[in-house]
Amino acid sequence: MDEMTGIKKAEMKMTRSYSIDMIIILAACAAVGTTLYGARLLLTVFVSLATALLTETAASYIFRRSKPEMIGDLSDVVTGLIIALILPVSAPVWMAAAGSFFAVACIKLPFGDAVTTPFVPAAAGGAFLSLCFKEFFFTYPSVNIGNKYAMTGTSGFVSGTSVAQMLDASRSIGTTVIDVFDIFVGRVPGPAGATCLFVMIGGFLYLLMRRPKEWIVSAAFIATCSIM
Hints:
By secondary structure, this protein is mostly helical. The chain has ten helices and no strands. The longest helix is centred in the first third of the chain and has 36 residues, at 2-37.
């Protein structure tokens, strides 16, 4: 029993360390997104985080029938942040709540915890939202309308064309220095926290320094996406 407890504590410590690194990177993405889109993104982040943490706590009471432990590994914080940042800032706020709830209640908890689940909860939550609410998930607002961003489909909403949509239509993404620079600083339509290449490359380099032995997974993913 003591040995199992020790293993659990070691796993939680490792997960917490990884989660802290991810929170630092995601906080940088959120800061850039807030600069581009204003306070609406902060509301989405708050709702997503609150839903992930409350779902974990409620499930602990309902299914484990005991007082829930402190959420110490911070994995739910990472999940909530990712769900909020992969959404367009124009998406309804309830989508962030739905994605976080699905990620924690349907993907993480049925398999035990963040270590034992065979899936990445945030990725599964994003997949769920993209399949069920694709008209909101893949409709991005223009970044040239100021800091007041209306919800998709409402009065005042101005749609933009993302880099992915340009490539899907087999059109050039532009060859001028300004176009390329806009992509690097995030001034292109897309998910609220996933358009600034400077920040994402910086996050990748940060992880390389912090976790040099795990670079092969990220490199393989990036290589696959590049080939596609």
